[in-house]
Amino acid sequence: MTDLSSKNRQSWLVVGKGAIGLLAACQLQQQGAGVKLWLRQPAPLTVDFTALDGSRHTHHFEPWPVEQPIETAFIAVKAYDALSCIQQLQPLLAENACLILSHNGLGTLEAIQPPLKPMQQLWFLTTTHGAYIEPGYQAERQVVHSGTGSSVLGAIQPASSQTPKVAKALHQAIGPLHCVADIQPYLWQKLLINCLINPLTALHQVENGELAQPRFAAELTQLLDEFCLLAERAGYPQDKAAAWQQLQQVIAQTASNRSSMLQDRLAGRQTELEFITGFVLREAQRLDLRLPGHQQLYQRCQDAGF
Ligand code: KPL
């Protein structure tokens, strides 16, 4: 990547007022990009942002004007809203619009290809940056960038797209950014982490770090074994020892985090279970595999009402 110091003047729409959407919005604005949010209300949103070094910054975001064509959008919505969100934006998209989608889980775009025109591009970004929204804020939001990470960007539609112009801005905002020809293996790696950490923490209502306790070791091992079996069969083989190490690392690095599924559950929101464990089970069925650990975990989550 070149000239990382130069200011970026691109005009961004950020959709999604969750931690990752607002993290990207704040960091893009900090570099000088014009950032507006997809807001229901006409009033601007104020975000009190705590950067990694502990410094605090106030950001104001105007709502996206309905008459303005969208050239670049970062869409960090829940998995279950991804397709309808793209469909909703469609009439406003510029002929050469570039959309970057980011969410947990898999299986949102398989059934229906988003209705995009030939020059419009859809990319997927997966990130390991940690961020959360301080609970209790209503009128404005307090976003904390809690852990550094990196991001991977790959084309969804058209599949062979060249690195987009916006890669540099994303590199500065939530980088380092790696652009890859095939995003799927990276999504499977993230799925592995999410399908082990999220349902268990949400079910037991514990912070991520609690999963390092010996009482979770047997269940995590079974879930990992089953996931590796599935991933191998699906064409995304995982190195089990490396995956276990990666899992422990994420648990340690995000020890005091509430997983997104636990946050959703505590807030009474729909969870992404269907796109995490649900996706794992649908893939297992397609490939004629039985995954009793994931099946039971899914059932327990359903019985618990999420
Ligand atoms: O992605 C996450 C999530 O909570 O959704 C992890 C990595 C588990 C961090 O909490």
UniProtKB/TrEMBL annotation:
Pathway the protein takes part in: Cofactor biosynthesis; (R)-pantothenate biosynthesis; (R)-pantoate from 3-methyl-2-oxobutanoate: step 2/2
Q: Which Gene3D superfamilies has this protein been placed in?
A: N-(1-d-carboxylethyl)-l-norvaline Dehydrogenase, domain 2 (1.10.1040.10), NAD(P)-binding Rossmann-like Domain (3.40.50.720)
Under the heading SUPFAM superfamilies, the entry gives:
6-phosphogluconate dehydrogenase C-terminal domain-like, NAD(P)-binding Rossmann-fold domains
InterPro entries xrefs:
6-PGluconate_DH-like_C_sf (IPR008927), 6PGD_dom2 (IPR013328), ApbA (IPR003710), Ketopantoate_reductase (IPR050838), KPA_reductase (IPR013752), KPR_N (IPR013332), NAD(P)-bd_dom_sf (IPR036291)
Where the record annotates domain Ketopantoate reductase N-terminal, the positions are 12-156
The domain of life for this entry's organism is Bacteria
Molecular function via GO: 2-dehydropantoate 2-reductase activity
Catalysed reaction, written as an equation = (R)-pantoate + NADP(+) = 2-dehydropantoate + NADPH + H(+)
Cross-referenced Pfam families: ApbA, ApbA_C
Q: What are the Ketopantoate reductase C-terminal domain coordinates in residue numbering?
A: 182-300
Annotated EC: 1.1.1.169
Function of the protein: Catalyzes the NADPH-dependent reduction of ketopantoate into pantoic acid.
Q: Which family does it belong to?
A: Belongs to the ketopantoate reductase family.
Question: What's the protein called, per UniProt?
Answer: 2-dehydropantoate 2-reductase
Species this protein is from: Alkalimonas cellulosilytica
